[in-house]
Write a structure and sequence with these properties.
120 residues, mainly alpha, 2 strands
Length: 120
């Protein structure tokens, strides 16, 4: 797939995908003779993992490290136990971050409810 199709499927901008490549977070699997980026389904899966980490406030470095650990586990490569341990820490951190977001969302809902009552 070319970058436009990937952007549409992942609901990301072309700019984000290019930036992630520039900073080394995700590289396309190939390029056409004309230099256009080519992505595989596996690339799209990686992009979706990154996209899901982003709203939780993970840094590019944290996302990159998580992606390396996920690949290590998928490939059953050396260091798999260490990768699992690091991902367990990321999982606990993500759960904590989600909880904070959920609390913020509850406060936003309360505000909307109060404001709606004022306008009724």
């Amino acid at each position: 797939m070319q970058i436009g199709e990937v952007a549409a499927r992942t609901e990301l901008s072309l700019r984000s995908l290019r930036h992630w490549e520039d900073v080394g977070l995700l590289r396309p699997s190939g390029r056409t003779d004309g230099g256009f980026r080519l992505y595989t389904e596996a690339d799209v899966e990686k992009i979706l993992v990154i996209r899901r980490m982003k709203p939780l406030g993970f840094t590019l470095e944290q996302m990159s490290a998580a992606m390396r650990d996920i690949e290590t586990i998928r490939d059953a490569g050396p260091g798999e136990a260490e990768a699992r341990s690091r991902l367990a820490v990321i999982l606990a951190d993500a759960e904590d971050r989600r909880g904070r977001l959920q609390a913020q969302l509850a406060m936003a809902d309360e505000f909307l409810d109060q404001l709606g009552r004022q306008l009724s």
